[in-house]
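lol forgot to send this yesterday, sorry. struct tokens for the thing we talked abt
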């Protein structure tokens, strides 16, 4: 019963080659108004609105008498119109045959499809080649043009199916981007304190325009000359900020040369050494400008300069030691090992008051 009902509906509904559609394809309306995106040639045009078949909206357009030989000397135009600026999908029936091309060009019998929203021809087909599997319009109007000359009609002609695409979702509106709040004074101080040169500071503040800022910073201007310029009689306008930064670094927490007493360093009371003192690298300098200074004070600790990487080095020195029984001094070359501080850092330590 269901199969019988399906066959009955298939016979009643229009489709490629049906009598209903063949009759419709021969009835055209004369284009009385020259439209910007409509037919401009002095030909007949039939407007097909893709509103049938419910919300889906679909229909057929075919050469006369499809799938039998089409008439000669025929020029037909269809304008497919979708409602609400919706787009369309177009596909060809696999049964396709028009007069063959000449030198690969469809000159005589052909079907042509143009997207009127872009004024662009999507393609022209003839011969035994079938059209593309699917064409998608970019707008709501498409023109289909069929031309046959007065010679050699072919069969079966062509038939294309058009249907509405689902309404496209509106483009999501991009929310306004709220600019990030400027960093606090503490955050800015923490960031720039790790930079080594004024160029790095300006580049951090403005990666794109830091060079112009650099020129502006040192641009000669008597309004910008402070007492440091007048008293120090500098030849360059403004202070050498990199030199000031380097002077602070040299006297901050860092390895430096210090002399140590070998007897105290080695805790030897039974011998003396020559030379009695040697130079070693030990951590020194203050940590008042380091990042840990403020955090340590908040926790009741002190920020101290301590070694973070050390090494051991050997030295050969003269050792003088009393012989047993008071038999004079023993002289010998001996190796001593001393600790060197290679790297230093400021870290919190408990107060030992």
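and heres what i got for the seq, position by position
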């Amino acid at each position: 019963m269901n199969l019988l009902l399906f066959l009955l509906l298939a016979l009643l509904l229009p489709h490629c080659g049906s009598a209903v559609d063949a009759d419709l394809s021969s009835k055209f309306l004369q284009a009385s108004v020259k439209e910007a995106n409509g037919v401009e040639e002095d030909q007949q045009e039939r407007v097909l609105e893709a509103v049938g078949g419910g919300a889906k909206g679909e229909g057929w357009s075919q050469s006369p008498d499809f799938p039998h030989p089409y008439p000669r000397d025929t020029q037909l135009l269809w304008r497919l119109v979708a409602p609400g600026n919706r787009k369309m999908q177009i596909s060809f029936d696999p049964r396709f045959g028009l007069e063959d091309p000449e030198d690969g060009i469809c000159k005589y019998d052909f079907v042509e499809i143009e997207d009127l929203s872009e004024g662009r021809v999507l393609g022209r087909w003839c011969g035994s080649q079938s059209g593309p599997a699917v064409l998608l319009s970019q707008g709501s109007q498409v023109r289909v043009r069929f031309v046959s000359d007065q010679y050699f009609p072919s069969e079966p002609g062509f038939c294309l199916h058009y249907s509405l695409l689902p309404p496209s979702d509106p483009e999501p509106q991009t929310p306004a981007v709220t600019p990030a709040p400027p960093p606090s004074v503490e955050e800015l101080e923490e960031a720039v304190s790790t930079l080594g040169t004024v160029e790095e500071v300006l580049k951090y503040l403005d990666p794109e325009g830091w060079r112009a800022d650099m020129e502006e910073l040192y641009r000669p201007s008597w309004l910008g000359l402070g007492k440091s310029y007048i008293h120090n009689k500098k030849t360059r306008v403004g202070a050498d900020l990199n030199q000031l930064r380097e002077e602070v670094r040299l006297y901050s927490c860092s390895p430096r040369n210090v002399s140590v007493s070998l007897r105290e360093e080695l805790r030897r009371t039974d011998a003396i050494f020559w030379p009695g003192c040697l130079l070693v690298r030990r951590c020194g300098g203050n940590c008042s400008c380091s990042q840990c200074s403020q955090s340590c004070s908040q926790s009741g600790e002190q920020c101290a300069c301590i070694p973070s990487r050390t090494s051991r080095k050997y030295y050969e020195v003269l050792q003088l030691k009393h012989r047993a029984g008071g038999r004079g001094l023993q002289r010998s070359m001996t190796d001593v090992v001393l600790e060197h501080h290679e790297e230093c850092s400021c870290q919190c330590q408990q107060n030992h008051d």
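The radius of gyration is 47 Å. anyway ping me if u want another try
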